[in-house]
Write a structure and sequence with these properties.
Layout (H helix, E strand, L loop, with lengths): L1 E6 L4 E10 L2 E11 L6 H19 L3 E5 L7 H20 L4 E4 L1 H8 L7 H11 L9 H27 L2
Parallel strand pairs: 1-4, 4-5
Antiparallel strand pairs: 1-2, 2-3
């Protein structure tokens, strides 16, 4: 299974693609999409959308996992994040990819074992789990890889549950 993880952000959207082959995780790609702060917000959303579509077309993931919103005290920031998440989901759906969504707590719990882990802890675990020689940067990219790892872990657990129920 090849999974693209997306950590949406209006300034910087992280993305990472991993695949699982014979129960081993391997990195295919990681990076970030940085929009220009001076650009009008609709143009930033279009840029993020276009970049995500290009990555999906180039690497052809089987599924896409997107980090869900966290609690935000700033309403304007929360609205912008929601719109960016919508663009990320739309880019996957328009390319015919199934989409899963995970809360930051679920992602951290799945990857680090602790739902309140710091970004550095997530980055360290992603580096270890994927046997990387360098830490994926920026944090948006390591968070996106963590979202993809979370999806693979949860998909594997769901498959085991279905298999045992079918016996």
């Amino acid at each position: 299974m090849r999974v693209m993880g997306i950590d949406p952000g209006s300034n910087c959207t992280g993305c990472g693609i991993i695949e699982e082959i014979n129960n081993e995780l391997r990195v295919v790609y990681w990076g970030s999409i940085r929009s220009k702060a001076r650009q009008p917000f609709p143009q930033r959303l279009k840029f993020i959308y276009d970049e995500l579509v290009a990555i999906i077309q180039e690497f052809n993931p089987d599924e896409v996992a997107v980090e869900d919103m966290f609690f935000a005290t700033n309403v304007k920031s929360a609205l912008k994040l929601g719109q960016t998440r919508g663009v990320a989901i739309l880019s996957a759906v328009n390319e015919g990819k199934p989409v899963a969504e995970y809360s930051p707590l679920e992602v951290k719990q799945s990857v680090v074992g602790y739902g309140r882990a710091e970004k550095q802890q997530v980055q360290e675990m992603v580096t270890t789990l994927l046997r990387l020689k360098e830490k994926p940067e920026p944090f948006d990219a390591s968070d996106a890889l963590a979202v993809a790892i979370c999806h693979i872990h949860i998909a594997a657990a769901n498959l085991k549950i279905k298999t045992t129920k079918g016996r």
